[in-house]
Specification:
single chain; alpha/beta; Carbamate kinase; eight-stranded mixed beta sheet; globular; binds adenosine-5'-diphosphate; binds aspartic acid; binds magnesium ion
């Protein structure tokens, strides 16, 4: 059984949804289809939640109405039969009635997550209606019945697997299953989600849960490129990546994949393919356990990074000092991305500033702290790049005109990370591209 996940742009226009229908019916292999919300919808839902959080009900209403109008247009172009259009009208009415009711009650975080879930519920129901209109047999698989996270927001892999297998057992003759990406239930049994871009994670978790033959991530580009195509000229798709390389790139900002979406597939050695809905014959990127080709394969960048320096001539040489520093971050559940040390200071980076104030207060017990906001981690990833001494020279040459705040090299054979002020990001990515990929 295989998993095919289609992102927001792949379902964002009626003609694209038709294309998805054709892609999933090209062969008879059993498959689970994971859909994102139509492109723009989750952003719009975030906007509705923000307006409500600020008490701006009129603005929220305006945003609901704009989104509603979009769906009114969408379904008319998607469906042609009277019966199909009636069904779609009912679906849209139901979900927008829900949003309008929320305007009347007091807002909280749980309600916000309910709002965010509407996008994937709408896209899957409309797509399912399209399949019905075309007499394509399929089973609707509500994600809220099997996808769950625990109190630390971690997916409950064993439970997800048990529930999913139990459901699928009832449909052993059926070939097509349609489900929502992104949404899940939390430990309080409330509607929750796997964070922005989380549909990739859903696909990989389902793949792991049922030991799928492959997880296909269908999007609007022909695979993982060697650099961010939104920022850099002359990028190219990479044919093959190892799980470790792909995970590193996803974690360090390659938007094409949700940062956590590789580990479930990697755990069960399930290949992941990145494919282009608009260009289905393009080879895309295949991600497997195999390590191929030496050298730099790609560059990614992660914004919104905060660097924290703790200076303490007295403490740093003492054993146990780093443990004490790390324990403070652990206490506030704040992961550290990069770390560099000197005799008198240690610098770490974080991307979650929820508890920054408390963390700094506690760190001040050990020494002086300095904080740099608006930093970007640039990650150069590849296979065995630590063995290639010339590569470091090329990185240094490429970045010679910018102040580099931190460098992390040697932590793994697969990457070099560089921290720069975000204002230098675009130029740094382009210069690295020109220096490291000569084509
Ligand atoms: P989807 O809606 O299908 O999940 P996303 O927008 O989340 O699609 O991801 C695809 C986008 O990721 C591409 O359109 C591209 O602009 C962006 N992107 C950023 N870095 C890379 C990269 N290294 N390779 C490919 N795409 C990338
Ligand atoms: N719709 C969600 C988002 O926009 C999930 C996804 O597209 O993967 O973040
Ligand atoms: Mg995405």
């Amino acid at each position: 059984m295989k998993i095919m996940k289609f992102g927001g742009t792949s379902v964002g226009k009626p003609e694209r949804m038709h294309q998805v229908k054709d892609l999933i019916t090209r062969d008879n292999e059993r498959k689970i289809i994971v859909l994102s919300a139509l492109s723009g919808t989750t952003n719009a839902l975030v906007g509705i939640g923000e307006a409500l959080a600020e008490g701006k009900k009129d603005l929220a209403k305006e945003r609901i109405d704009t989104l509603h109008a979009h769906y009114q247009e969408f379904y008319k172009a998607l469906l042609e039969s009277e019966a199909g259009r009636k069904k779609a009208e009912k679906i849209i009415k139901e979900h927008f009635e829900f949003l309008n009711i929320i305007l009347k009650i007091s807002f909280n975080e749980a309600i916000n997550r309910d709002i965010l879930a509407q996008g994937e519920l709408l896209s899957t129901k409309l797509f399912y209606t399209l399949l019905q209109e075309k007499d394509i047999p399929a089973i609707f698989l509500p994600a809220l019945e099997y996808m769950s996270i625990d109190e630390n927001s971690e997916p409950e892999v064993a439970k997800i697997s048990d529930r999913l297998k139990a459901i699928l057992k009832n449909y052993d003759k059926d070939a097509l299953f349609i489900t929502q990406g992104y949404i899940c239930k939390n430990h309080r049994n409330e509607v929750d989600n796997l964070k922005r871009g989380g549909s990739d994670y859903t696909a990989s978790l389902i793949g792991a849960a049922i030991k799928a033959s492959v997880v296909e991530i269908w999007t609007d580009i022909d695979g993982m490129h060697n650099n961010d195509p939104r920022v850099v000229d002359k990028t190219r798709p990479i044919a093959q990546l190892s799980f470790d390389e792909a995970a590193e790139l996803a974690y360090f900002g390659a938007k094409i994949l949700h940062p956590a979406s590789i580990w479930p597939a990697q755990t069960y050695n399930i290949p992941v393919k990145l494919l282009n809905t608009m260009q289905p014959e393009a080879p895309g990127t295949t991600i497997t356990a195999e390590e191929t080709g030496k050298g730099v394969k790609a560059i990614a960048a992660k914004d919104g990074i905060i660097a924290v320096k703790i200076k303490s001539s007295r403490m740093l040489l003492a054993y146990g000092f780093l443990r004490k520093v790390f324990e403070i971050f652990e206490k506030y559940k704040t992961p550290i991305d990069m770390i560099t040390t000197s005799e008198v200071a240690v610098s770490v980076t974080i991307d979650d500033d929820t508890h920054l104030k408390e963390i700094i207060m506690e760190l001040e017990k050990f020494g002086n702290t300095e904080i740099d906001y608006k930093q970007t981690i640039v990650c150069v990833a590849g296979n065995m790049i630590a063995e290639n001494t010339g590569m470091i020279k090329e990185v240094v040459v490429a970045l010679q005109d910018f102040p580099v705040r931190m460098v992390s090299y040697g932590g793994s054979r697969n990457n070099v990370s560089i921290l720069v002020d975000t204002k230098y990001k675009n130029e740094a990515l382009q210069r690295l591209n020109d220096e490291l990929f000569q084509w």
